[in-house]
Amino acid sequence: MLSYIARRVGASLLQLLGLALLAFTLIHLVPGNPVRTMLGGRASAQEVHQVSEALGLTKPLVNQFWSFLTNLMTGHFGQSFTFGQSIGSLISERLLPSAALICYGTIVALVLGVPLAIIGALRSGRPIDHGIRVLTTISFAMPTFWSGLVLALIFALKLNWLPVSGYTPGLVGIVRSLTLPAIALGLSLLAVIVRTLRSSIRYVLSLEYVEAAEARGFSTPRIMVKHVLRNAVMPTATVLAVNVGFLIGGTVVLEQVFQIPGLGTLLFQAVQQRDYLLVETLAVLAGSIVVSLNLLTDIMQVVVDPRVRMGGKSV
């Protein structure tokens, strides 16, 4: 097991290195001069050159990439020339709204998805199962910005139950201001949870020990909680970890729709202003979250189920 964990950690570090290289390369391929954008169209060529030199943008790309890696490893992400403050402080200011939105959206998806998956598995092939499939397909097909606008139109503008946009700190404020975007985000993830968990539950229900529990007269809720869900949840957790990147991408759009001052809005502004260092740092941060969650899920799977095989050998 330890050798497997060591290999997975090494592979994750290589993935992060590749992600940093990819983010650095792609942002430098974007047309436009960030210094020219920052100074405005009337800035002279000499002024542009002086600012570019001060920001280190005149150095060879290899040296710029090495400086970028060094900043990442030391935790000193440098300065944002668009906002005029350290990138670390910018991220700390914007992290809570985005993290709260992702967690809230995941909770919404789980609260809706787990009961639907259980009902679909227990009533497989029946009209209610087909209805759940149609419902989750529709929710998955709806773009998050469209579902967010529809929710805002109904619950904010028509019924006046929740605010249309903005973000309010504090537990009550977070719940009120993030409920609509969280529902929109959760609906986009609903189909993934329902279909994955439904398939896992159906497989576990077909195993002999579940049939033995039924023969002993155990109630369906007891069998479902004690025997089925605990063995069927791991594939769903793995899929959730993989889809964290999808959730992060969804927050970029939803934060624009609902005017939430999170990391998605910060990334949008950084791309508009060609803020190289800020875009690179945010991209690596998002990738690090996805890679770390996948690593954690793999380790949990090995710990929970020692029968998992790696490299053709049992753990």
SSE order and pairing:
Layout: H1 2-29, H2 34-39, H3 45-54, H4 61-74, E1 79-80, E2 85-86, H5 87-122, H6 127-141, H7 144-158, H8 171-205, H9 208-215, H10 220-242, H11 244-257, H12 263-272, H13 276-304, E3 309-310, E4 313-314
Antiparallel strand pairs: 1-2, 3-4
Helix pairs in contact: 1-13, 5-6, 5-8, 5-11, 6-8, 7-8, 7-11, 8-10, 8-11, 9-10, 10-13, 11-12, 12-13
Uncertain runs with pLDDT below 50, 5 residues or more? 310-315
Please state the second-level CATH architecture of the largest domain.
Orthogonal Bundle
Q: Give the helix proportion (percent range).
A: over 70%
Mean pLDDT: 81
What is the total domain count? 2
Describe this protein's structure:
The structure is a single chain. With 315 residues, the protein is mainly alpha-helical. It folds into 2 domains: 1-82 and 276-315, no CATH class; 89-272, MetI-like fold (Orthogonal Bundle). 77% of the residues lie in helices and 3% in strands. It is globular, with a radius of gyration of 24 Å.
Which key terms come to mind for this protein?
single chain, 315 residues, mainly alpha, MetI-like fold, two-stranded antiparallel ribbon, globular, disordered C terminus
Provide a concise account of the structure shown.
The protein is an all-alpha fold and 315 residues long. It contains 13 helices and 4 strands.
